[in-house]
Amino acid sequence: MTRADTLAGAAPFDAMSVDCHTAPGVGRAEFAQGLYPLPPKLFGIDTVWAPNELFWIVTHGITMTGMPAFGPTHNDKAIWSIVAFTSYVDELSYYDYSDCQKYFPLAEAPVQSSSLPCHPRASGDPF
Ligand code: HEM
Known about the structure:
- It is a single chain.
- This protein is mainly alpha-helical.
- It has a domain at 3-19 and 43-104: Cytochrome Bc1 Complex, Chain D, domain 2.
- Helices cover 39% and strands 0% of the residues.
- It has helices at 3-7, 10-16, 18-21, 51-60, 76-88, 94-103.
- α4 crosses α5 (76-88).
- The chain is globular, with a radius of gyration of 15 Å.
- The structure holds protoporphyrin IX containing FE.
- Protoporphyrin IX containing FE is lined by residues 12-13, 16-17, 19-21, 32, 35, 37, 39-40, 42, 45, 48, 54, 57-58, 62, 65-68, 70, 82, 86.
């Protein structure tokens, strides 16, 4: 895992994790404040779980909680980058975190396919 691989996780982290789990200088989104269980801050999470365990959590999610599975929409390389950035983000200042987003915009994130809306309409449903 190179530094570039780690930083490639910055944009997907910002797009998909920060609303629930926070980042330096960024709090939970309003919707995430009402989740039960409350999504924990992930600072120091690499001292709780090994990298392969974090990979599993991000790939499969945690059933019966708000924690989604990213395996259906992201390839292994993308998930390893998310895991690496998640383990690294607590070392950043607010300004460093903002810089990561500037240098690794969402368009460059190695996402496998576009995500579906939460509740896709049945085919033929005009509304
Ligand atoms: C790429 C984005 C994400 C990453 C890397 C990520 C990572 C993780 C990890 C590592 C844990 C385990 C924490 C622990 O054991 O203390 C976790 C738990 C959790 N996540 Fe996420 N997460 C992401 C996105 C989200 C989103 C978008 C939500 C909310 C909609 C969410 C809600 C939760 C919740 C509620 C838990 C706690 C589950 C429990 O208590 O068993 N996560 N997440």
